[in-house]
Amino acid sequence: MGDGSVRAVLSENLAAVRGRVGEACTRAGRDPGEVTLVVVTKTVEPEVIETLADLGVREVGENRVQALVHRAGRLGHRDLNWHMIGHLQRNKVRKVLPVASLIQSVESLRLARAIDRVAGELGRSAEVLLEVNISGEEAKFGLTPDGARDLVQQAPEWPHLRILGLMTMPPLVDDPETVRPIFVGLRDLRDSLAAEAPPEVRMQHLSMGMTQDYVQAVEEGATIVRVGTAIFGGLP
Ligand SMILES: *Cc1c(COP(=O)(O)O)cnc(C)c1O
Q1: Which of 93, 133, 156, 166 has the fewest CB atoms lying closer than 10 Å?
Q2: How far is the CA of 73 from the centre of ligand 1 (A)?
Q3: Residue whose CA is closest, atom 14 of ligand 1?
């Protein structure tokens, strides 16, 4: 099959996801303009990402450092913002910082400190989200809510780190309603941290919701949804 059908499938899937985001916003009395769709590209070919860019997608996410760095380099001529959404080791920060527009997966104090230091050396600042494990089970990574609170309080010590909000990755479930309380928990935590945060911290974003549960996440206040499978399903 030719590129035309790839483009048609992607275009249809994007419209379907945007449509469901729009409907969820209507139900929740929210403005769809508040919700950014980050397309999670993982295993798709770079040519497919080019087609996404042709279709107007600007925000793309990768959960592996190697894929992020490689693709951001290869597609550097395209107007794409790359989000780091997976586990990041401190010794990879130097590779990721130059290409990532937002690191969504800051899950330890030591990682925050490393990002601040490297960003300082590169003469820039780094925008990040704190990854929180709200449910306290199953998820391998993520700060506890108290850990996130500690990190926010220490933020003034890191002049090159700009904390913009929270991210969470709920367990995989059959019924997305099961994870709604996790989204409510992340929103409540964001609100309570926002009330006590030092002025350096802008507790603005909630990155939550993937293919299984982005509708519930938007209803509960997501400002960023990270969707892969729903965009690439049915590709020839
Ligand atoms: C893969 C991934 C997603 C997207 O998952 P889909 O189910 O394909 O939509 C979102 N967030 C993270 C952190 C991921 O690793």
Answers
A1: 156
A2: 22
A3: 63
